[in-house]
Amino acid sequence: MKNITLLVYLILSTTLLKAQSPLFIPDTLSGSNINLNIADSSNQFFPGFNTTTIGYNGRYLGPTIILDKGQTVTMNVHNALMDTTTTHWHGLHVAPMNDGSPHNPILSGDNWSPSFTVMDNAATYWYHPHMHGMTMDQVMMGAAGLIIVRDSLEATLDLPRKYGVDDFPLVFQFQHMDSTTKQIILDDEADNITMVNGQISAPFLNVPAQIVRLRILNASSHRFFEFGFDDNRTFNQITSDDGLLNAPVPLTRLMLGSGERAEILVDFSGQQGSTFFIKQYGTQLPAGYPGGPPDGMGMMTMGPLDNTDFNLLQLNVVSQTINPVTTIPSALTTNIPYSSVGADNFTVAITGIPMMSMTNFAMNGVQYDMNVINMNTNQNKIMTWTISNQSMMPHPFHIHGNHFFVLSVNGATPPLNMQGRKDVAVVSPMGGSLVLITRYDDFNDPMMPYMFHCHILSHEDNGMMGQFIVNPPLTNISENSNDLNNQLYPNPVNGTLNVMLQNEKHQPMTLSIFNDMGQNVSMTKTREGNISIPVSELTAGIYMLFVTDENGNTKTSKFIKD
Ligand code: C2O
Ligand code: CU
Ligand code: CU
Fold it and tell me: Would you tell me which CATH number, out of the four given (2.30.42.10, 3.40.980.10, 2.60.40.420, 3.30.70.380), belongs to the domain 157-334?
């Protein structure tokens, strides 16, 4: 009898506890110095159970970083983990050396402090580790946080922007936890719980009876969300990953793949005292999408939450704030995708290895090799990317370092909510295709690539990733300066090109040679004052030498190979 009473008490108290937990709103960090400490930790997701986690400045997930477009920021990241990590600023337009890719490792106990100017439009971005082969492990243990960028254009619009008052960060995750030990299982195929801002089991959020802005991130490793409200209300999407849409897009369902973000406006005017739920409508995902119905090709769903509808977050409508936003703007911005005239086209063909694989994928027949550059482009060069998917699964395709525009989805005009700046776009299975367009105007680095990959973290870790180099602009090669002219000899040259660098301080210098097609044909790193580069292998013609110091200052000269 006593045991039964205790049991009933436990069940009741857990139920009450769950029902009573208000949604946790992450702290914010802003200013020109952002300090992040990534560390092993533990968290009580379930009362009485210490779950091993990783957090930035805390137990699980991390603070929301708020940045202004145009400001400079130094991100001071300390790695208190036992393992190497990196911190990637997902969606931000930064140079490869500041991007936090696998090429910017932070060893255990070390610091990494990239400084950069925030060049991005107002939107919701995020940060997370990116060590090749360990991304899923570190992210799903809890290492992720949001970045909110504000800008002067967005500031002129009458939009909710009081953080935690009428503007709420919502980090949604599918997770896999052992049902007895309550430890996170690093296998994303059988996810069995969902979290919002690191809380399990439909916590509640008080929302004022007015227009509210929700900044939504799918920070799952694998599964797609199909968001909707339990009353099937219409809401308005106002941003795609990297900026405002042209106009609010009315929706009743919003699908986000791993890594995608959307800001939505929801109108709770006149609904004070009511309760609503944000739900996962897994049954309404396209067949074969992780989290959705089986694909009808014999493939079964893999997790207990797949192909089901359930509550994610309870919303209690409370009284209005002062100065509430009560109307939805009719226009937001004007997005003008680049013209594709003269673009270089890159094709990425996705295949399963083997064909029917759900875990192992190749792009153009190869998997990630940190020492292989898969593509080359030039600064200021328009690029289209044609992604075609021969595999059995959809893949959220992500490119680092800049936003892109989606020109077509399966050959058709993209839906309105994909017609803004994005950095992740879902390519549908079995013949699906995307055409993307982008251009890298501000940075080049002949030594360090940007990544492109599937944002299903187990796919990425298994090698569904590639890398490309942005070389100096082609225009420099045809016209521009000869400011190294007197420092090269002989010119014309046949066997060995000698370069006098006047490098008294022995700074690291990179010497890159480009042919008249803009292809990088030679690369040398040195700290010497004078250097000899063998050029006998080069075909006869006009070449351009670029000498870049560690601050990115570049000097150039033409030379002729006989
Ligand atoms: Cu959010 Cu390369 O990733
Ligand atoms: Cu990224
Ligand atoms: Cu994938």
Answer: 2.60.40.420
